[in-house]
Amino acid sequence: MRVSRLGSKPQPIILWTCWIAPVLAFLSAIALMFANPATAATFAHKQLEREAANYETYLKRFKPKSQKVRLPVLLKQADGLLATDARSAASVYAAAVALKTQSTAAWLGLAKSLLGFDAKTYSNSERYNVPVNASSAAYRAYQRAGDAKSKAEALDVLSDALVRRSFWRPAIEALKESVALAGSPARQSKLAALKAEHGFRMTNYVTESDTAE
Q1: Which secondary structure element, helix H or strand E, spans residue 201, and what is its range?
Q2: Closest by Cα among 133, 127, 129 to 97
Q3: pTM of this structure
Q4: CA 199, CA 208: separation in Å to the nearest integer?
Q5: C-alpha–C-alpha distance, residues 70 and 26, integer Å
Q6: Residues 152, 142: contact at Cβ < 8 Å?
Q7: CA neighbor of 165 nearest in space, from 140, 139, 143
Q8: In angstroms, rounded to a whole number, what is the distance separating the alpha carbons of residues 49 and 53?
Q9: Could you tell me where the DSSP H helices lie in 36-167?
């Protein structure tokens, strides 16, 4: 019986394995990219992206100093505050975002809490900043979401924030995509009402329909 020595000619089976493994890995990566096209982010808006980038940079200052703080603890605390104290919830969600900027739950919670502020308590700057920050947080939640249901929820919240800003066209487009990703009777009714009330605008004295496909 022959014993292979170091430096001897590789056997064909070894060469085949070395060649096929990278090919299989590449094909698997391609398959993952196209396995669920519904999760790909297709709603995009340049102004919203700029605002979201600025807001994300601003939120870095709220990162907890302690290394012991954990994201699940922050999210649980913020979720418990959301229904009764939106401002306190927003502060905790901001810390959660700063701790882990890839967290969809943190971004979405932040957007919801900002929209939960009582407009009567706004300071002068908050009348502008709060809706803008809410749309920025919802936009990031949409971008970071990994499944169609989460993206649809984020787009629904984004549409609400854009309505606060009277950004009718992007509000309609965001809600349309939300319905396409995960439609529900409530969202479809809200979209129909939004189109009916704000689906037309005047541009250079010519009526332009925002509801046109």
Answers
A1: strand 200-203
A2: 133
A3: 0.77
A4: 9
A5: 35
A6: no
A7: 139
A8: 6
A9: 46-59, 71-82, 86-99, 104-115, 126-144, 148-164
Q: Tell the residue number behind the tokens 């701790």, with chain if given.
A: 99
Assigned token pair, 107: 């971004």
Digit-by-digit pLDDT tens for the chain (213 residues) are 444 443 444 455 444 344 454 444 444 444 434 444 445 568 999 999 999 999 999 999 999 999 999 999 999 999 999 999 999 999 999 999 999 999 999 999 999 999 999 989 998 899 999 999 999 999 999 999 999 999 999 999 999 999 999 999 999 999 999 999 998 899 999 999 999 999 865 344 343 444 433
| Token pair 């249901």: residue | 149
Tokens representing 39 are 């999760």
Residue with structure tokens 């939120």? 59
Let me know: does 114 contact 90? Beta carbons within 8 Å. yes
